[in-house]
Design a protein that fits this description.
With 384 residues, the protein is of the alpha/beta class. It is built from 11 helices and 12 strands. The strands form 3 sheets. It has a 7-stranded mixed beta sheet, with helices on both faces. A 3-stranded antiparallel beta sheet has the order 9-10-12. Strands 1-11 form a two-stranded parallel sheet. The longest helix has 22 residues, at 361-382.
Length: 384
């Protein structure tokens, strides 16, 4: 049996999305900027995908910018908004558990003279709304908070945060990194007072190398890529038509039978948690109830390095991440695990299990049985 539990790193591309992309790649391959029929056909795919995506969030078609993925979306929102609004202030706010796609542009802006407040989180990875309110000043031009943490599945109080931000300083823009949340939650940016929101295609069974940024109408933001003026000058470069078409298909599927899929994910997570609580050498990080993300579980193991366990599971066709996949090939300590004050000995002994709607209870049970068999053996030999 194979159990792929690394869906927060990437998901398998849906068959329909892949089929549609093949058609665009081999038959309808025109440049959407071309005026002839092939160009019009390509542009139609983009229009169709845009319409499908915008319907899920009840936003206008003009409020969507296609990008190369979540990292570019986050960079565009943070750097673009900071540069466009710096005359109003040079202060930004984010959290200590953001993905590097948010953390790195914040560091870049600090080098450019901006100041950044990094909000603490509690042991569950949740921000304090009081601390957020206190941090906002008349100089604050942007707040960026992730919706779902990619390592422990913490769900931040986005709607409450938005209300506080807009009440304290109506000119402060609110960006949400929804890369682990879109497709798992019904997100309506206008109603929730979100000004910008980042999404990546390959987290929801779409292709890699494509994503989008929602930007509320009339939001001041500068482009970070210049060239031919595509997408109304906001993101130059010929659109990735196959990728955009595939993402549109994946989005439609993600929100089809939405509640049924969410319920399935929670049942998988609950079955996994029920099984793992029987292992005295396993310790779950963060919240585990239905107020946590339906698809992410972080577990620390006594006296077993995460990399060793990852490869031992791999030998049994079980695929997981050591912490966050995006940083797992770099020997760095997880900022999220440190922020939630995970014990020092667990910082390099933590594994992330992340599920998708295609996973089954049989796969969960298989994984639990393998863990029960191999972890006691690894504990004997990997560390004393």
């Amino acid at each position: 049996m194979e159990a792929y539990f690394d869906n927060s790193a990437t998901t398998k591309c849906s068959a329909k999305a892949a089929e549609l992309m093949m058609k665009v790649l081999t038959e309808d391959y025109g440049n959407p900027s071309s005026l002839h029929l092939k160009g019009v056909e390509a542009e139609d795919y983009i229009k169709e995908a845009r319409s499908r995506i915008c319907k899920t969030m009840k936003i206008n078609d003009s409020e969507l910018i296609f990008t190369s993925g979540g990292t570019e979306s986050d960079n565009m929102a943070i750097i673009g908004a900071a540069m466009a609004n710096k005359r109003n202030g040079m202060h930004l706010i984010t959290t200590k558990i953001e993905h590097a796609a948010v953390g790195s542009p914040m560091k870049f802006l600090e080098e450019q003279g901006f100041s950044v407040t990094y909000l603490d989180v509690d042991e569950n990875g949740l921000i304090s709304l009081e601390e957020l309110e206190q941090a906002i000043t008349p100089e604050t031009i942007l707040v960026s908070i992730m919706y779902v943490n990619n390592e422990i599945g913490a769900v931040e109080p986005i709607e409450e945060a938005a209300k506080i931000i807009k009440a304290k300083n109506p000119n402060t823009l609110f960006h949400v990194d929804a890369i682990q949340a879109y497709g798992k939650y019904q997100i309506y940016p206008k109603r929730m007072e979100i000004d910008m929101m980042s999404v990546s295609s390959h987290k929801i069974h779409g292709p890699k190398g494509v994503g989008f940024l929602y930007v509320k109408e009339k939001t001041k933001i500068k482009p970070i890529i210049y060239g031919g003026g595509h997408q109304k000058g906001m993101r130059s470069g010929t659109e990735n038509v196959p990728g955009v078409a595939g993402m549109g298909q994946a989005v439609a599927e993600a929100y089809e039978k939405f509640e049924e899929k969410r319920e399935h994910l929670y049942k998988l997570k609950e079955a996994f948690l029920e099984g793992i609580q029987n292992f005295e050498w396993a310790h779950v990080n963060g919240k585990t109830g239905r107020d946590s993300a339906p698809h992410i579980v972080s577990v620390s193991f006594d006296n077993v390095r995460s990399e060793v366990l990852l490869h031992a599971l791999e030998d049994r066709n079980i695929f997981v991440s050591a912490g966050s996949a995006c940083s797992s090939n770099k020997p760095a300590v997880s900022a999220t695990l440190q922020a939630i004050k995970v014990k020092k000995e667990y910082l390099d002994s933590t594994v992330r299990f992340s599920f998708c709607s295609e996973n089954t209870l049989e796969e969960i049970n298989y994984c639990l049985a393998v863990l029960e068999e191999i972890v006691p053996v690894l504990r004997r030999y990997t560390r004393h």
